[in-house]
Amino acid sequence: MDQTELLTVPYDAVLYAEGSDQYRDWDDSLKEEHMHALEEFVTAHITDRGPARFVQGGISNGSYNRVFRFSFDDGGSDIALKSPKPGHSAGTIAAEKVANEAAWLEFFKEKTTIPVPRVYSCGTEPGHLSPLKLPYILMDWVLGDNLRDFLRSAPPEKLLPTIYQQIASFYLELYRVPFNGIGSVVRNKTTGQWSLRRPLTIDMHQLVLGVSNYPTNDWPTRGFTNAKGYLDFVWDQQSKQLRNLRNLNTPCEPLSSEDIARLRFEARYRFKQLSNSPEFRLHDNFGFRAFNPDLDPRNMTVDPDTGKILGVFDLEFTNAMPAQFACDPPLSLFTVLPATALDTGYFAWFLQEYKPVLDQFLDAMQELEKLEELEELEELDELEELEELEELEELKLKKKPFGQAPLSTVMRNSWKTKRVWFNFGLNHSDHVDAIYWAVLHDLHLGGITPELPAEVKVEMESYIQQAKAKVAEHNDALDSYVRNERAGLILLLLSDAAKLINDLQSQLRLVTYFERTKAQLGPRQLESNVLNKCAPFIRAVNDSVNSDTFCSEVSKLSLQELAFCSISFSERQVQMIRQFFKASHVRAYIKSQQILVTDREEVFRRLDFYCKEDEKSPFRKIYDAARHAGKSTDAPRVATTPSTKLPTTELTGSPACCARTPANGESTQSTASLANLENRKRKLSITLDQSMALSNDKGAKNHPVSLQQLHPVKAKSMKDQYHEKYLAHQGMTTEVTNARDGSEALLTLCK
């Protein structure tokens, strides 16, 4: 069985949801005056182009950062102001992350021809922040189309060699810039000389962002001088993730929590053993080179007409690393990233499909190396004639730092020996377990997996028990968060329900609901279930808007009961509720519940049905917010995969709950709207995501492909799974179909 899709590392759902809340509160707080302040700030730092003007629509959101675009009255190139997003970027190391990126941009601009944007200003210290009170980089705005999107659009074949040769030239240039250790670059302000500070990797950032109370007191205070010191640090961080991430071993059918914990423990133990293999051992004698796991087409722009790469950006997690990392081939030239393939169980398919793409890239690199070799020979001949022996040796070392093997050859060897996947595990703790079981588990010395020592087995059993306790701790925290967020969602609905009650027809519908309930339960039970339950909540509203009281009382009530309560609310009380519980809780509720996409699309279908394409519907706002939440890719991830969207397939037909005949008095226009909805639903693609896709980071940088193309058998099985889920909901859909407004449907969905 392919277990890779069950072993993706899920970061703490509560932390991610709270971070998303923090980000949304910050985003909601940005007003027009903030943009004016930023315009003045940019004008003060770029003094030769006239007043700066914020470009309408000029906001770009990445996984961790937001970029604002500004133009100038007197012309000149546009400027980008980049800052970390509160809640989506680890606050304790945000300033360090920004400073590192600015330093690497300046370093690349000085030492290479890679087209990185020019940095005009960078502020990370108190008193030197942007008007948003955040660290910032002020740099050139990068023109062009996103290269990853361009490659996915099937560009003209004649442009591919041009594009690949440019990317290859970037790798070659970085390959030839040596460092004396491991870390991030920093320039001495007095001498202008470059040196190394401690490294900050994407894994380090992710651990702080996604693991509750993650310890950083043992992080290095300076750079590493050898590969062994850095490797020991990586082992330590992966071990801390294994033992501190509360929901790491959440059950995922067909595996139990104990099964997953056992697989993870064994994978980490044996992955570390592989570091002693000759093919995978890190050496100091090859030196150190700049390495960035995000140096790929999604962080580049291109001129679509010529294929010229115009910009390279997002260098915040670049570090000088053991040179072996720089000898690995790029893994991001295909429409699906390896992390996505691991998350979905299609890694074997990825290996097969990626090989010809990689060969085309390495052929382009080889052609470039041949051209450079001719130029090098001419330069060597000139130096030999001049007997400049010292310069001659320096040139040889610069051009061939690993002996005579060209970089393209070294990269082919890395792919062949699977060293690239061992290094992938070192640099991607999110997928170290999955990559071990997918590729590396049969690569032990002699091809034999050694028996686990007795003491290791004892330690593994102890870890399994600890993992179960951690999962329970996380679930308790998540339940508490969900209760609060569910209360916020229902109270948001309640504030709209109060307005809905003002409509006589809605009042009649509500009365009809209670009369039907009364007939089913009897008047005494109705009084007990509704009136008595409502009383404490009504008292809470009348007394004051208090978070704990609201959350306690509202969780006991259904949406209809809350709507019934709202009849007695004054407009002032409704406004108080609106202020206290913000619309962002709609998204938080959906995220924290970790609803699978198939279920989420069912939610959208029903909300869409009750909205009836009516922009004035009080539930339209809820639907729009929920739909936006389901599609957003600019936030950190919350559920079980740090990576992104899976393949899509189309589901024909529509659920029974969306098909009905017009009621008496219903307009033909409404009937037509429902018919349009039917057509739209038949075309609706169901994204088979395993989580709410908050990306990281990553979420925004991955792209769906056709599931049918990936695996037609699995596509069919996923359709069958969806229909099985739908049939299981039939008891619920009967009630939903009979509803005339959105309240009963939302009640069913929110229970």
Automatic annotation (TrEMBL):
User: Where, if anywhere, are coiled coils annotated?
Assistant: 358-400
Renumbered to this chain, the Polar residues biased-composition regions fall at 640-652
Q: Read off the Pfam families from this record.
A: APH (PF01636)
Q: What is this protein called in UniProt?
A: Protein kinase-like domain
Tell me a Gene Ontology molecular-function term this record carries. Answer: kinase activity
Task: State the organism named in the record.
Answer: Cordyceps militaris (strain CM01) (Caterpillar fungus)
* PANTHER family (alphabetical): AMINOGLYCOSIDE PHOSPHOTRANSFERASE DOMAIN-CONTAINING PROTEIN, AMINOGLYCOSIDE PHOSPHOTRANSFERASE-RELATED-RELATED
Identify the residues that the record assigns to the Aminoglycoside phosphotransferase domain, covering every copy.
59-320
Keyword Metal-binding in the entry? The reply is no
| Keywords (A to Z) from UniProt | Coiled coil, Kinase, Transferase
Region described as Disordered:
632-655
